Acetoacetate metabolism transcriptional regulator AtoC (Citrobacter arsenatis), 461 residues
Amino acid sequence: MKTIYRILIVDDEDNVRRMLATAFSLQGHETHCASNGKAALSLFSETLPDVVLMDIRMPEMDGIDALKVMRAQQPRIPVILMTAYAEVETAVEALRSGAFDYVIKPFDLDELSMVIQRALQLQEMKQEIRNLHKALSTSWQWGHILTNSPRMMDICKDTAKIALSQANVLISGESGTGKELIARAIHYNSKRANGPFIKINCAALPESLLESELFGHEKGAFTGAQSLRQGLFERAHQGTLLLDEIGEMPLGLQAKLLRILQEREFERIGGHQTIRVDIRIVAATNRCLQTMVKEGTFREDLFYRLNVIHLTLPPLRERREDIALLANHFLQKFSSENQRDIIEIDPTAMSMLTAWPWPGNIRELSNVIERAVVMNTGAVIFADDLPDPFRNPVSATTEPKPSYSGERNLKEEIKREEKRIILEVLDNQDGNRTRTALMLGISRRALMYKLQEYGIDPSGS
């Protein structure tokens, strides 16, 4: 059965309104018409249309002012603007204000219908994604690990095998590379999935508090110990304990941890009863424990107990094929959390993200996208929405960079890098534009604009 949509048509030209209303009514849709932005706002509130088709230049209230009010009231209803050739710059500004897209007059009715259909399909898809996020919020699946990187895919395959075992695991990698995510994947795909998953950051607590957190204490064991308290080892029984930043654990506690790994038993602080536990230890570190062993700051026997299986996660700069994938994932996540309806990341902005060295790895990328979503008022993340270092890469790193004499040269460098990335991905995808757009994290339409701008012929790439 064909879906019937409510379409609000806003234009000060009677013939344009009649033509569009007739065309869409013949397709079976419900249409409403207004001659200016002010009248459109009244109809907008009354009818709550599925999509708005609106001219920019109109008396009393123009399309951009009306768009801003509509976005504030119902940010998820797509608004498509109509503009003349001379107003393209205004239309681009409208995209920043939240328009879904724009069409240039005189337009082809079939093309306009396709734009409307794409807007409606995207809204339905985003609703499905929101429903899926809710469904997954209380469960764990491998889909939590997003990657196009062959190296990360190999790690995921290894993780699936590791999860079926009972072996201790050591995960190393720079801060923000996803060590906790891998640890959770191991736990929730193991036989311990119904047991607790408990994490402690060994660098976050002083030695005295860390010992109490891990082992617990008896009532009266020390000043302030007014009642018995179970430690994390005890609470993690039949589950998994993640010891994050294990390299920061003091030597004295390392010896006690070694005993638990060997004998699976311990005593609470101030207690004499031996408590046996069935736990799996996963340790994570951003330091080289082998170097620490040589320096005498980490016990060699503990290192070998933890290092039964060792996973090393690559930094984000070594898996650049994942940047667009992760950026779009965070765009969906933070748009949903902040009740925003941001559609995509502009190709130039995505090129800047892809070229960035990401010293803070995935955590830094997440923060950058969250900031862009919060600060953005439109439907597209543009380069201007990114922090200043991304737009001025000279100050972003201590690595030597070519000197730029002015704004024009910087833009030219960005365009050259953008063209190079597009050509590389296009070649990897054998000239397939749909797959190329997907890998770049942009719409197929945006890719077509870029191919035209740079004079790239996919068939000869």
